[in-house]
Amino acid sequence: MNELLVIIFAPLIAGVIAWALDIKIVRELFGIAGAVIPLSYLIYLYPTIDSGKMIQYTANFAGFTFNFALTQLSWVFGMIAGVVGLAAVLGMASTSRSSYEWLFALMSLTGVFGIFLSYDLLAFFIFWEIMTFGSFMMVLKYNKSASLKYFILSVIGAYAMLIAIGIIYARVGSFSFIKVYNAFAQDAALGMVGGETLFSRGDMAAIFGLFLVAFGVKAGTFPLHVWAPDAYSETNQSYTAMFSGVLSKTGVYGFILLYMLMGYRLMAEFGTFRSVPSFGYIIAFLGGLTIIVGGLLAALQEDIRKLFAYSSISQIGYILVAIGVGSALSIEAGIYHAISHALFKGLFFLIVATIIYRTGKTEFKDMGGLAEKMPVTFAMAFVAILSLAGIPPLVGFASKWLILEAVISQNMPILGGMVFFGSAIGFVYLIRFTYAVWFGQRPTDLDDVKDAPLPLAIGMGILALLNVVFGIAPGLVAGELNKIIGKEVIGGTIWELDIGVGKYNGLLITIWLVIGLLIAAIIYFLGAKVRRVPVTDTYQAGNPVTMDYNLTIRRNFFLPLKEALSFWLRISFDKLYKDIGKTAEDFAETLRNYIYNGNVQSYAWYLAIILLILAMWGV
Question: What whole-number distance in Å separates Cα of residue 442 and Cα of residue 526?
Answer without folding.
Answer: 28
